[in-house]
TrEMBL record:
SMART domains: Lactamase_B (SM00849). InterPro entries: Metallo-B-lactamas (IPR001279), NDM-1-like (IPR050855), RibonucZ/Hydroxyglut_hydro (IPR036866). It holds the Pfam family Lactamase_B. The lineage of its organism: Bacteria, Bacillati, Bacillota, Clostridia, Eubacteriales. SUPFAM superfamilies: Metallo-hydrolase/oxidoreductase. It comes from Clostridium tanneri. It comes from the Bacteria. Residues 22-194 form the Metallo-beta-lactamase domain. This is MBL fold metallo-hydrolase.
Amino acid sequence: MKIERISKSTTMFTFDSIENYLTSVFLIEKKSKNYLIDTFCGPGSMEAIINQLNSKKETVVINTHFHWDHIWGNCSFKGSNIIGHRLCRKLSDELWEEQINKNTKYIDGKVEKLLPNITFEEKIIFEEDGIELFYSPGHTVDSISIFDREEKVLYVGDNLERPIVYVESEDVSTYVKTLENYLKYNAKKIVASHTSNLSEEDIFSTISYLKDLMEGKKVDFESEYTRTVHKQNMDMIYKN
Ligand SMILES: [Zn+2]
């Protein structure tokens, strides 16, 4: 695991235990509370982070969406507030066993089912710390994003990713709207779970890719990896 400071108040913990991906969780330490964005693959992955936490402050856990590599470490935070979209709680619950069975080899430690215990529809704002959580459906229907108003850092979960995003919700026009909405934040820094240094350029190129997908345009990619993901995206949208 790699530990890196990415802003005055944020530490990024990056794991390389999943092939082909680097996956990061983010600890934002503010005046009133700590905010941990995602919990990776289990309690084993969370140990180093917990050891580093200032225990005098409450730690609020945030799940960007229901995917296994973002929620399995929730059980390290029993008794804490875990926040996600209403649909994140629902999908994490319904698909818990299925996700465990499909990705058993990535389980890190004794994973127990622990769902978000605070859910919302559109927005939650922690005013004292300038932390805004907002609904941003795209990669999945339950995706949320986090904006740090003090430092202008935007955390986008899996909604942006280089070299290509995974489209796992067929509502691509909503995905485009979410990305267009990101531009309004004028973020100084944009970070995703699997790509740490994004720019507005990545938002524009992802919008353009999604529009091509919707229009059924033929898109060519150089690498085998991007071609495979693109095919999965096509299958997701045109499955009916
Ligand atoms: Zn995901």
